[in-house]
Specification:
By secondary structure, the chain is of the alpha+beta class. About 15% of the residues lie in helices and about 25% in strands. It is globular.
């Protein structure tokens, strides 16, 4: 557990309007995003992600059928389709090994984006401090999915560096990058490219269709004081609904959470937060009094109501 403190930068009302970017109305003030140290945009436009070019670039379709390409605001993931310059990533050696490691990190970021965005309906919003479009006439935007800011998640998980610009959330993104770099998460493992291991799958899927697609064990700041920034993300990769009622999630020490009456439909996902909150269709709350998942390694085990192990993953 760390003592880092992530700053909070409040987003101003975001630009929208021309070019098909028409915000949904009545969203109210920008709330803090669960599981992040940032705030969500006050207004977003709902779009469908039709393609993931790489970790920081996606293609979208608006409800009226108009299509566009989005470059994610404030982030830069390692290249997949071009050469990487290690000098752009602090501490990564400017060697062939460093460049090769960054390419692997770029593939990891791209797979992460595909797993969480491709085919899904997400919210997008521009930044008040930036032009609406950047190089190659791509729309510069934040992406909101599962009530979290995806741009920020890329940085906090070490899958992207902060792109140097005057975007409004730069402070919190920079803090998140520092935390990821200190913890050697994601691409920052390339500081020692010979030791970097990219063999861990992005998601662990069980025969039942239940997949553990993300483990976020290291909350910003003191883990015990930021319990809802410690979470697991589950998805149903099967073709049928999964009745999770009575299923349990435990760590290696035996701490246990039990799902109440709950079903996860095909393609749906849910986030299990360690802290407290109101359960809904996409979020469950453990209600623990302290952090559960060890930052230096643990084991996630999911069992049915009858006690059969459905899924197990060590990290």
């Amino acid at each position: 557990m760390t003592g880092r403190r992530a700053g909070v930068v409040v987003v101003l009302v975001l630009l929208a309007g021309c070019g098909g970017l028409v915000p949904d109305s009545g969203t109210g003030p920008a709330p803090t995003a669960p599981g992040t140290a940032t705030s969500l945009p006050a207004d977003t436009t709902q779009v469908t992600v039709t393609a993931v070019v790489d970790g920081d670039t996606i293609r979208i379709e608006y409800k009226n059928g108009t299509r566009d390409t989005v470059r994610l605001v404030g982030v830069d993931t390692p290249e997949v389709h071009a050469e990487n310059d290690p000098a752009e990533f602090e501490g990564v050696p400017d060697t062939a090994a460093g460049a090769d490691c960054l390419r692997e990190a770029g593939t990891n970021a791209s797979n992460f984006a595909k797993d969480r965005l491709l085919g899904r309906t997400v919210g997008i919003a521009t930044d008040p401090n930036l032009d609406r479009r950047g190089y190659y006439d791509r729309l510069l935007a934040y992406v909101v999915v599962d009530e979290r800011l995806f741009n920020y998640r890329l940085v906090a998980s070490g899958r992207a560096r902060v792109y140097d610009s005057d975007f409004s959330q730069q402070g919190s993104f920079t803090t998140a990058e520092a935390g990821a770099r200190d913890a050697r998460r994601g691409l920052w493992r390339c500081v020692d490219p010979e030791a970097a291991d990219w063999t861990t799958a992005t998601a662990t899927t069980s025969p039942s269709g239940l997949a553990l697609v993300e483990i976020h064990e290291d909350a910003a700041g003191n883990d015990n004081e930021n319990l809802n920034d410690e979470y697991l993300v589950f998805a149903n990769r099967g073709e049928d609904a999964l009745n999770l009622t009575g299923w349990t999630v435990t760590d290696a020490a035996g701490h246990s959470y039990t799902f109440g009456i709950y079903s996860l439909g095909p393609g749906e996902r849910t986030t299990l937060y360690t802290g407290s909150g109101s359960d809904n269709a996409t979020a469950r709350y453990w209600g623990a009094s302290g952090a559960v998942w060890n930052n230096d390694g643990d084991r996630v085990t999911v069992r049915t109501s009858g006690g059969d192990v459905v899924l197990q993953r060590a990290y």
